[in-house]
Design brief:
flat, 69 residues, alpha+beta
Length: 69
């Protein structure tokens, strides 16, 4: 690749890595990686709001989630 193309690829990968994340899910005894894009609104959460959301997320156990389902 030419230097200009290499530079553009690096910029694109940086953008992709910033706005996408992944999780790994055990599905049918296989570990499957699932990619998803981040909602741009999440970048504007205050640290306090983010803390509250994380605390609420971790308070729910798997059993509680199953009961709600």
């Amino acid at each position: 690749m030419h230097d200009e193309e290499t530079k553009k690829v690096k910029i694109a990968l940086k953008f992709y890595n910033r706005f996408t994340k992944h999780i790994e899910i055990n599905f049918n005894e296989k570990l499957v990686r699932v990619y998803f894009s981040l909602d741009p609104y999440t970048f504007y959460l205050t640290s306090n709001t983010e803390k509250i959301l994380r605390e609420q997320e971790y308070m729910e156990t798997s059993a509680e989630k199953l009961r709600k389902f």
